Amino acid sequence: MNLLHLLDLALKSDEVTEVIERYQISVVYDFDRLHEDSLDVYWASSPQAGFELRFNERQVLDTIFMYALPRTGFSSIEPSFTGVPFYSSFAEASAALQCDGISFRTSAEGQGWIKGDFGTYQVHYEFNQDGALSLVTVMAANA
Fold first, then answer.
1. Which domain holds residue 20?
2. Would the pTM count as exceeding 0.90?
3. Domain count of the chain?
4. Rounded CA gap, 18 and 24, in Å?
């Protein structure tokens, strides 16, 4: 199993429960404390495995954050566990998406990030100042 297969699954699905138990993850309920009409979300984070899962107000997984490089208490994730390709540079990501006919957008300067649209989901690749892949975010198309 990989993380991409969990996208659009319910928090209480067997597949998500398996990952939560395997990585001993606590689920955190994040509600609208300030009464600003923001929707409630649920977070399941594994800093040691390098990923965070965000569930929407319906408790459906809509966003997966995968840390390619260690950052803010998160270790780097094992790319083979993700279900999406990891690219070593912006140029490699751009060439691969073009070659595969995937529509994409990029940051204004054309180096900071690239976001591919895969139909049912989107993948956002973020590159650091040195040009290395630092964060991969997968979002459900309806997120």
1. 3-140
2. yes
3. 1
4. 10
